[in-house]
């Protein structure tokens, strides 16, 4: 009862941040030492998975698992933010609150273009959210599927009075990923049976009545529960055609420890999903520790690339992160495509970042031939791209957030055939599970290149043309701003690099120390 009243007040007075801020107040609210400058984080409180990603009437909507009352997991509700470019987000009042002991878990938002649900009246179309309601009932813990709808571009939501729409009387049955099947004129839902390591598919004509179609799994990695499935069609890069991708969160048991996300590539015939037999048809959406439950946007223009956003965190330590007054942030949006080459199939990710490139920072490349030469000093956020331009047996890479005692190392280990991010000396590493080097196997035939997006508390790496995505949180001392390539000596001349200072999405909240100033 207490929490219900508080949520009502919260919504009524629009206490969620960002809605009516002056640029100055916004800058201050988002200027703490570890506050992400190019990634979305709520102004305050806890967030986990992104939910209900949808592009509608020119706006990208990011709903997210949110606790309106504190910075730990609980009272799960849907927070809300909107953007016109997938970079600059404005947080809006709470969208769908926990109510009557039913928490609002992860789910989707679809555009019901022809009012198939009958919920849109008097409008002809509306947004419909399909989410898991999580509650403790006299018969035990229950997870059911429910609807809420909005007739005003996602600003106000009403829960469907006949909820739930799908109830198997199960304790674990969650995270519906719903989309419109253009070919068969049908709604399709992929939903997780977490402990059975299965994704179930359901059909519906009206979003209210759901008919079971098939189950996928167990398959691939089954070391932990399966959560947050997402089914989407991904185009082949530069070629005709596409394949279906089924992405599934795994927690714990991911290769780097804790939570992670695997993908399967194959065919979906409207009823069941079959994994391709090609090499690379099973892989990891991210080889870092900190990208979980990424899902794709509904409502994207036909023929365009799908776009994903994930929760930049790991259930290993999410509640222990020392950030305040917020806890949790989202990954950058990534455009997806498929690569098919001599190494097989792979999902390729390209972060949306170019509009934030502010100034190209010259790199003192001659310093590379001196031992410990730093090529620039720059405070985050920035983008650093580098690639090997003539083949060599030598490992190479870069140390960032560098101050002689601390650094984060990112590179290619040629002897081991690995790409890696080593954050064991990165600064704050005392949180259990944080002190790690994450690795991914390299495909020898693919280029040795890497795009790095460096924020105040994260490194997002896209190596080998984005076929390796690796996202890691990092908590460096704020003065560790040097950039140092290795190895030093003539070998490094074989590496080309570009550096850009990025504009803060919170408008000037970055602390510019200036390039090469030390
Ligand atoms: C994944 C998850 C989902 C669930 C949500 C609850 O991180 O456990 O399965 O819907 O978080 O917050």
Architecture overview:
The structure is a single chain. This protein has 518 residues and is mainly beta. It is 3% helix and 45% strand. It contains two helices and 34 strands. The chain has helices spanning 2-12, 23-29; strands at residues 45-56, 59-67, 77-83, 89-96, 103-112, 126-137, 140-150, 158-159, 174-181, 186-193, 198-204, 211-216, 225-235, 242-251, 260-268, 273-275, 282-284, 292-296, 307-311, 326-327, 334-341, 344-351, 357-361, 374-377, 382-388, 396-402, 408-413, 418-422, 437-441, 449-455, 458-463, 468-473, 482-486, 495-502. It has a six-stranded antiparallel β-sheet with strand order 23-34-25-30-31-32, with no helix packed on it. The longest helix is centred in the N-terminal third of the chain and has 11 residues, at 2-12. The radius of gyration is 23 Å and the shape is globular. The protein starts with a helix and ends in a 16-residue tail after the last strand. Residues 1-20 and 508-518 have low confidence and may be disordered. Residues 48-49, 65, 76, 105-106, 132, 174-175, 227-228, 293 line the site of beta-D-fructofuranose (FRU).
